[in-house]
Amino acid sequence: xxxxxxxxxxxxxxxxxxxxxxxxxxxxxxxxxxxxxxxxxxxxxxxxxxxxxxxxxxxxxxxxxxxxxxxxxxxxxxxxxxxxxxxxxxxxxxxxxxxxxxxxxxxxxxxxxxxxxxxxxxxxxxxxxxxxxxxxxxxxxxxxxxxxxxxxxxxxxxxxxxxxxxxxxxxxxxxxxxxxxxxxxxxxxxxxxxxxxxxxxxxxxxxxxxxxxxxxxxxxxxxxxxxxxxxxxxxxxxxxxxxxxxxxxxxxxxxxxxxxxxxxxxxxxxxxxxxxxxxxxxxxxxxxxxxxxxxxxxxxxxxxxxxxxxxx
Length: 312
Hints:
- This protein is α/β, with parallel strands linked by helices.
- The protein is built from eleven helices and nine strands.
- The C terminus is likely disordered.
């Protein structure tokens, strides 16, 4: 049996709790590597990794590329806008052409939910989901959990609120799966029309009163309002959203409690979160960014390391 149960990382829905724990623990090991003067290790020397980004990304793409290079892998970056995809080539043909170049791993972001699962059927390489539409973003959830554990020393029993545009968020879904498997309690908060129907079936609570949620939670994971995925008129106005759900300094001061503030980025400052909060002492947003490199090193190492050939 290999280091992890699954050959691929498609999502956290089907990732066992013990594998999530192993990924986080290994992430802390690589976090120590990132604190060294020489931040490179030879763990994946000779491995070929392709980053397939069919959707715009800054943080995730750079984080993966850094992680791959810190592990001494050979890296190829693929941009859909500069490829034959822009001429009408399909995903299967594009990927099989790349696979013919003997890639060991494909990291993919794609706007269509389920595309990473499809990719795993087309190629023999390890597939890592860097975000597939509104489905899952497992590496973001793993770095979020790592950051929470770094702050609190545990995940079990913590009360985590996910606030904002839940219905369009792949980050929310992966966090829901991951946090609950690790024993945390999850409450969702946002406008009712931005909360998916039937979400209670996943075991989460829903509360549309942000002040009650702040009073309850140990940490707030504040999500971006994804206006590019919305139709016209879903949010009546930015000002109204901020008034009812924005994480402002005034709102936090009213509660007079210690609470950890997180955000997966990019941020709409002055909408879902104020600059004074994002840059304040309670925020661990920059820790999330650093932990993102460490957790992606962990994922790549555990999927591509010495035991890779033994995985089913």
